[in-house]
Amino acid sequence: MSLVMKGQTALALGLFNLFRVFKYRVGVKTGLNPVQKLSAQLPMGCFFSQSAPTGTMNVPVNSTLTAFGYLKYPVAGQLPNWFYSPLTQHIFQNTEKAWYQIPDFDGNVGDIKGIWEASRFDWLIDLVLHERQVRDGQALVQLDLWLNDWCEKNPAYFGPNWKCGQEASIRVMHIITALIGLEQEQHPHDNVCAFIEAHLKRIEPTIDYAIAQDNNHGTSEAAALYIGGAVLNLWKPKSQYQKWQALGEKWLLNRATKLIMQDGGFSQYSINYHRVMLDSYCLAEIVRQKFELKPFSGQLYRQLQKATDWLYVLTQADGDVPNLGANDGARLIPVSQTDYRDFRPTVQLASTLFHQHSYYPEPDSYDESLTFFQIQKLKQDNFELPSRNQFFNESGLMSSQNNNFFIAFKLPKFKFRPSQCDALHLDVWFKGRNLLRDGGTYSYNSTVEDLNYFSGVASHNTVEFDQHQQMPRLSRFLFGAWLTPKELTYSANEFGCGYQDHWGCTHHRKISLTDNAIKIADNISGFQQQAVLRWRLQPDHWTLENNVLSNGKVEIILEAEHPITLRWSEGEESRYYYQKSKVPVLEVIATQATTIFTVIKDLT
Fold first, then answer.
1. Cα–Cα distance list, 227 to 137, 147, 507 (Å)
2. How far is CA 52 from the centre of its chain?
3. Of 19, 129, 457, 485, which has the fewest Cβ atoms less than 10 A away?
4. Is-contact 477 489, C-beta < 8 A?
5. SS in 3 state form for 484-504?
6. 3 state DSSP class of 476
């Protein structure tokens, strides 16, 4: 890989960010970073219940854990194994090591996110919801029993569950969410405060590293410092707690200003990470209101209004969204009994907090997040909801809705680093169902084949040239030679964009919508051997006859200026983290420069 390309990519990432990463790594390696000098004794005893739990108590309120919003697995015995991965069924062994001595990737365990999942404490929210429903105290006893076991098995700053500052932040957010859910936020138990304090001590010394990532790590860790500092300062005012709260507030504003673009899109070009970011800010605002702290700046609220609208535009009637961008299975505020892929609870919460208008007026399960935090549903007269027809110029996305069709069109615009080769990907929804779909992420630590497939061009509805990716891969999470848009045009029902890649291959896609059809023209050239256009279809009974594909409800007609070959293939998609399923894929193969025409017609 050329030094010039690496240099250009480094400049695009930002020299100051690279310096932050370098400083962090040198500091940890040499022992100069103060995080290595930390020590704390995690508390034992009461956290949320009235009496200290004992190991002999039998409180089987919850004997099943759920990982990544879908994967249910039993607790072996009364207590979870905090080092067991439900993804790989392996158990992490080096639990006595200091967190900074543990490698990022362990071949024996596989994806470390499987180890981290139980220590994110989603189960804590489940038990709080159970207690709110039953009010017999049993769930609180189990909650304290599990927290005591976690503190015993995960001594401060040792083992894999202390390795990531964001994981520590998610625990803080869930502990404070539990306090609010149980109406204990004004008078938390001393042990809860000691637990939060130990975590903020871990987060603060490495927040520079989180900030350097220009992603959800910075927003999550800033939110944890702000809300954790606020809870501690209310409990027992100290300059250290005030410092944490102020540091969190500083970075919350900084990250919103830098990472939320002017059109509302987020730096990671990912709908799920957009939700993670927005949930972090929602929780910060909820704590601010509960404790009657001074409001955040007007600039912060304006950015969050735009981010709320961006997510609303892409959220379908049933709450599902296009599977765009990286997705690690996170849902930060799991207080509603809705599916992981239902994004309406976040839209409802964020619109109520930041627009003072609840975007979904009818009562439904998306209101459970408001109910949990005791937030009133709000309505403003003459409030105009965002249009579904949008040109998100800065974050690189176009959306359009016309009768039964909704589309999202991904543009090759990268102010921040791209995580997937999804330039000119087209997501099509028909009557609320994802007709042409994105492959998703699957896993961050799987085989090279899986990594290249799910983050690569083959898992998107776009064109692959000469069996190479749209951008050269520099490392597991980094591409070089970032694409830029060519011939970008936009009007309400007709738009287009193209690019030329590192190898000189060019692709321009033009899309027009009529009342009952979508017309797509893909102009391709510059390739050596062959180009493959893929249409990744929703699983259904499809028939192909004379270049016409149909499932009885929709017809897809294919033509080209020069000869093309149509080939049925089987692809994969990941709707939930570490989950795969098969999807039918129609491949359109061209061996010379041409324009391929696709018409998608509504037959209903």
1. 26, 20, 47
2. 37
3. 19
4. no
5. CCEEEEEECCEEEEEEECCCC
6. coil
C-alpha–C-alpha distance, residues 512 and 96, integer Å: 59
pLDDT tens readout for residues 206-223:
999 999 999 999 999 999
Pairing of strands 433-436, 426-430: antiparallel
- Neighbour-count burial for 559-593, b at 16+ CB within 10 Å, e otherwise: ebeeebeeeeeebbbbbbbbbbeebbbbbbebeee
Cα-based distances in Å from 456 to 149, 418, 572, 573, 581? 42, 11, 12, 12, 17
Pairing verdict, β 473-475 and 463-465: unpaired
Decide: 90 and 138 in contact? Cβ < 8 Å: no
Q: Give strand pairing partners of 468.
A: 465
Confidence of residue 62 (pLDDT cuts 50, 70, 90): confident
Based on its alpha-carbon atoms, the radius of gyration of the chain, rounded to whole angstroms, reads 25
**pLDDT tens-digit readout, 305-335:** 999 999 999 999 999 999 999 999 999 999 9
Q: What angle do CA 214, 216, 219 make, to 5 degrees?
A: 90
Q: Is the dihedral of CA 10, 12, 14, 17 positive or negative?
A: negative
pLDDT at 569 over 90: yes
91: alpha, beta or left? (left if phi > 0; alpha if psi -120 to 50): beta
Phi then psi for residue 92, to 5 deg, are: -70, 135
One-character DSSP codes across 525-540: E--SS-EEEEEEBPSS
**In Å, how far from its chain's centre is CA 417?**
15
Q: Is the dihedral of CA 75, 81, 86, 90 positive or negative?
A: negative
- CA 349 – CA 371 distance, rounded (Å): 10
**Measured distance CA(555)–CA(534) in Å, rounded:** 16
Q: Rounded distance, CA 397 to CA 385, Å?
A: 19
Nearest to 441 by CA among 454, 450, 452: 454
The Cα angle at residue 241 between residues 238 and 247, in degrees rounded to 5 = 140
Residue 404 φ/ψ region, left for φ over 0, alpha for ψ in the -120 to 50 degree band, beta for the rest? alpha
Task: Supply 141's token pair.
Answer: 């006893």
